[in-house]
Amino acid sequence: MNVAEHTEAINLKDVEIVHGHVPRAAESAEFTRGVKQIKADGHGKCFVCNATSDLQSHHFLAEWSEADLVDFNLLKWLAEIFDIYGYGAKMKDTPITSVDDIRNQMVLCQPHHTGVNETAGDPTGIHNLVFPFWIAQVNCKKGECPVPQAGETIEQAEKRIGP
User: Fold this and answer.
1) What is the DSSP pairing of strand 105-109 with strand 116-117?
2) pLDDT confidence of residue 131
3) Is 159 helix (H, G, I), strand (E, B) or coil?
4) C-beta neighbour count of 1 within 10 angstroms
5) 3-state secondary structure (DSSP) of residue 134
6) Which residues contact 33 (CB under 8 A, 6 or more apart)?
7) Which residues pair with 116 in a beta bridge?
8) What confidence tens digit (pLDDT) does each residue in 72-126 have?
């Protein structure tokens, strides 16, 4: 017996202890070089929807605010596993010494980075969803994504994905 289609409203309490850190006044030179290199290598588009405007570079595997807590050997290991642009393999012999390393960057449009679906009040950004549902915006069949997209209500998304 199959489970019937249904909507789940999950109210998570996301508890994180954000380590004390200095305010980020500007991007580091390393981060800026990485952003330029990613674009020069043909990856200047949102990882989720391929948008080419309103782009931001997301600290993918380790947040900037947690830089003092990161084990850079473990970050390097993760960057080689989750090697979305190929830099983990290309730079395998180069240590990671900063969360601003190119291997820790992912290009996202604003809605898929920090934005929310203003019409439905539902999140679409990597900072707003648990990873399995955020990544569903990438791995689902065209038109079948279970996350309401920008300007789409929950009811419209339910109709779009069907029974």
Assistant:
1) unpaired
2) 86
3) helix
4) 3
5) helix
6) 102
7) 123
8) 999 999 999 999 999 999 999 999 999 999 999 999 998 899 876 554 455 788 8
